[in-house]
Amino acid sequence: MTQLLNLLAAIALLVWGTHLVRTGILRVFGGSIRNVIARGTSNRLAAVATGVGVTALVQSSTAMSLIVASFVGQGLMPLSSALAVVLGADIGTAVMAVVFSIDLSWLSPLLILTGVVLFISRQATAVGRFGRILIGLGLMLLALRLIGASTATLTQAPATRLLLQSLSSDLLLEIVAGATLAILSYSSLAIVLLTSALAGSGVITLDVALGLVLGANLGSGLLAVMNTAKADIVVRQVPIGNLVFRVFGILVTMPFIWLWVMWGQKLFTDMAAAVVSFHLAFNLGVCVLFVGVTDKAAVLLSRFAVKSEAGKLPQRPLHLDPLALDTPSLAISNAAREALHQADVIETMLLGLLTVLRKDDRKLAEELRKLDDTVDDLYSAIKYYLTKISREALSEEESRRWTDIISFTINMEQIGDIIERVIQDIEDKKIKKGRQFSDAGMTEICDLHARLIDNLRLGMSVFLNGNVRDAQRLLEEKARFRDLEREYATTHLARLSDNTIQSIETSSLHIDLISDLKRINSHICSIAYPILESAGALAPNRLRPINPDGAEG
User: Fold this and answer.
1) 156 near 40, Cβ under 8 Å?
2) CA-to-CA distance for 345 and 355, rounded, in angstroms?
3) Cα–Cα distance, 343 to 510 (Å, whole number)
4) pLDDT grade for 417, boundaries at 50, 70 and 90
5) What pLDDT is attached to residue 310?
6) Residue 549: is its pLDDT beyond 60?
7) Which residues have CB under 8 Å from 371's CB, separation 6+?
8) Are 358 and 439 contacting, i.e. CB atoms less than 8 angstroms apart?
9) Assuming Cys at both sites, which of 88, 115, 522, 527 could form a disulfide with 459, CB separation 3.0 to 4.6 Å?
């Protein structure tokens, strides 16, 4: 019983070590890796080579598949190139299985010791995160050694021998078992290494091990499909295509697996080497078989892609790619893009607001009020997405950007609420009662509205680019807008004293409207504060000095 628990613990350690390495590399080198992938697809062979090299580093063909799927979804890579990259990724993870099958147990203590020292001493830095990667590599090597020791003892037990004798080779059952294990462990590499260790220790026969390896390859393909199940169809094309390649590869391999069993027992003295070599040969064969038809496969898969209707403003999150969460730098970028999408909806509401004022359009007013629900939903989605990004993995600059995005989306959500309330007031106090603003009053409102639109666009630019000069301009616009609001309130009161009928009828709405436009402008201009504060360009006290007699200086 103790040896069985030791074996299960070693397997869990192997899976955990694989997870540490994969997530650690994506966090430290995620941006660079994605740049390499994006640039290394000039032709199919280059794409395959890129997949091999990057996956050998990341140690997860599933992670690689998710990365290129997100690239295709964002229009950064053609589908045919992405399919070629994933074929190379399968080879890359097979190469790493061969490397880990070599006895490197002597290296494990050194990697763990070095990794722990780096991680504890400089935890919040890139050096500390690199230490985390070393810990993962050391744990993987240690786990493989523990698996070998545990299985060697287990095979001597009479109950284990009886169980092994009852395991007749059922290829389909072995494939299903291998696929299930790969899905549960979230790592086909870990299952292939486990299978090779078990075969090397004599716990399972070579034919059973090869069936489990085929299943692990199938499970890896299924994992990527499952992880993108809720994504757009354009994103799902990559893992679906790769899964189809793997299924066809397995179907072609199954009738000839006995050849590897026969020759493997003669060519390899160590059955572990026979297992990982088969894994590598299988993925090389799949690549050779399908790399020449990735363009045709892309055409077939593209027929299932549903194109969104052009000209309509999307009402759902566009850029919150869950596949990017393992790479915090990219996830932060995605959240920023989604925040700009939220601001686009706000701009649509503001533009429609003036049309409602001029034309008393009740149908448009109702549509604009519904858009506030979209703004709220986007705010909730962005906030939830940001909470799933590991703050520990963020650099100081990325942490500031994280905070800026939260602040920006809160301001946009509050602007949406103000616009919704303004539209309701317009319906209740103007449209239903058939009242109109005076020409002078409407001119003032249009002037404030035009400035508001300009300031919103400037605010979006400041949020996107972080330009200090533009941020200063935005704060200057805040003071100018405040002065105009006071001026127009004064002229409105003058029209009231002149007994202008239209001004009298719409007085309450007019005053409330220009006040609400000023509040909206204040939310927009607050975008500038974090930028100026980070640049050290924000005065510690923005209040005007007051003379002792109480007047402003």
Assistant:
1) no
2) 16
3) 26
4) very high
5) 37
6) no
7) 345, 348, 349, 352, 416
8) no
9) 527
